[in-house]
Amino acid sequence: MCSLINLHMRTSKHRLPFEAVCMYWIKLKTNLSFRQIGTLFKIQTKEENIRKRVENIFHTVSRYLYDAIVPSHLGFHHLSRADALTHHTAYTETFFGHSLALIWDGTYIYCNKSEDHKFQKETYSGQKCRHLVKFMSIVFPDGYVFDLIGPFNGKENDAKISKAILEMNDDLSMIYEVGDTQIVDRGFRDVAGAFEELGFDIRMPSFLEKGAKQLETEQANETRMTTKTRWRISQDFLVNIDVLVRTLAASLNKCRPRLFHGKSPEDYALASKMLLMHNKTSHLQQVISQGDLSLRKNWKNLLHCDIHFDFPYLTLDFLREYTCGVYQIKQSSTYAKPHLYDHDGEFEYQLSSSDDTILRCRIHSKHSSTS
């Protein structure tokens, strides 16, 4: 990275290009004050000039890196469609075919309160209850950042920002075709129509119907397939925040390996399994729907299990395959934790009186006070 600015930044007795780049990244990573960074690098100047000298170095490096990295590693024009398609994963390729897939999400950057009352109102987010600015991140499934657009005021929601981007930006047509996939979260529900009007296939986790307590099997499977593929700053930085954030994203694209490769034979096998199970009917749901199993009665408490109780031994590898990943396994410890404190580490196991192959366990709900 030093070679990118060597041609533009001359070496002086006060700093080398390498030191200048280090100061830049230390500031972005730690948000230490310019005076503290100057002390770390033993800047030889008067005490009152340390802060100003480091600040000048920071903004100089920022300008050079932006010009050297961003145009070729970030933005709608830096990749061809063929190059963009190489950022597929096994899951997006299996679930959505060979169409181009992009993930849209808002990125928050918190800021301090401003003395400007108008600016303070515009940056306050009612959802986060803090002052912030937003960027819209447009990312490929393997973690490569296609573009980062902003900043936007904190009071703007993701859907409104996305709609503004779609209305103003014609550059998407240079790389996208009708039928390409846009992967979003539920916060984009108000802009789904705008995506569809442009011919995009929008994928979003399902919503609960009014009065429903859980998703239907097909909705839950669609949601799993969608989710499978998916710093505080000084007030002085806000004037340059777009340059800093875009430089950071472009640098990650250039220097960092992909966050998620997802192209191993195991990934393709798991993706194919999930696609196969997508429309498969749940046997347990059928039993309940037919009235052959009541969730409120005819359950026997298992207070003392027979030593010969025939329960299969479940390995961690089996559970990973059964749950199509590790998310549910990671969640299990947080579900078990309340019982360790409230019930002396014991769980209430119950066996169906009408079908001895069905076993259930009462655990505290994540979203409500009931179990």
UniProtKB/TrEMBL annotation:
Its cofactor is a divalent metal cation. Residues 105-230 form the DDE Tnp4 domain. Keywords: Metal-binding. The keyword Transit peptide does not apply. It comes from the Eukaryota. InterPro entries: HARBI1_dom. GO terms for molecular function: metal ion binding. This is DDE Tnp4 domain-containing protein. It comes from Rotaria magnacalcarata.
